[in-house]
Amino acid sequence: MDYTQFLDVNPEVAAAIKEGKPVVALESTIISHGMPYPQNVETALNVEKVIRENGAVPATIAIIGGRLKAGLTADEIEYFGKKGLAITKASRRDIAAIVSRGMDGATTVTTTMMIAHMAGINIFATGGIGGVHRGAETTMDISADLEELAQTPVMVVCAGAKAILDLGLTLEYLETKGVPVIGYQTDELPAFYTRKSGFGVDYRMDTPEELAKLLITQQAMPNAGGVLVTNPIPEQYSMDHDVINKAIDEAVADSVRDGIHGKETTPYLLAKVKEITGGDSLDSNIQLVYNNARLAALTAVEYCRLSK
User: Per residue in 27-39, pLDDT tens?
Assistant: First the structure.
């Protein structure tokens, strides 16, 4: 069966792909589940603006009325922002059910990678990826993002794995799956809200051109998977390592007490950390997304230049 029968590519995005122009994919879970309305819509539109200012075309990805969307209009972003948590958070296991029932779905890292690849988009900017949750040795709570990175040849630009995770086990899992973890202008894995984690990356790269060359080479390899680029949050927005870790430990303890598990875990923990830090974590989250969008756009520009 041809998946394109379920896929709508925004005309601007389709034209850019056809003409070999740079395009950057964006997820929609950050709109529906990441922050309240209208801040979510404002942030989503600003991320698209950052990508345009750096020479690329933005393609926010979502599922609307059972259609896989590669590139949302401003009205569709507004719709998503207003509907918010009422929209189903869609991972790989959810796509067929959501599409067949004509539902809306907010795409995670996993589903954004899938739909981007279907549409022919090679680079995706997000906040942070999912990973191995703390306590996964008993819960087996491991994000589908890691499996998708192992099998879908899209470059994901992020600020590292979310700090609420077990970063050491997340890196071990990525190594097992053959996913290269790149530090952009850093030798250390950034930890989402903070620039340091105490864990190293596989390779350091210092320019968008280096990243683009890596992606082109990776995609030429047999059975190529994705590339993970970790881009530290700008220094001025980085939170104190001890403060954020204390907040995360408290949030994790609350999640155990409240019986939170599965795909509800990440939004619960992020909301708790925001509450504990008095909103500082949300401000940092927004700034790191802008920073990742900028790097992804510059890398997409180089990718297109080198691919000609």
Answer: 999 999 888 899 9
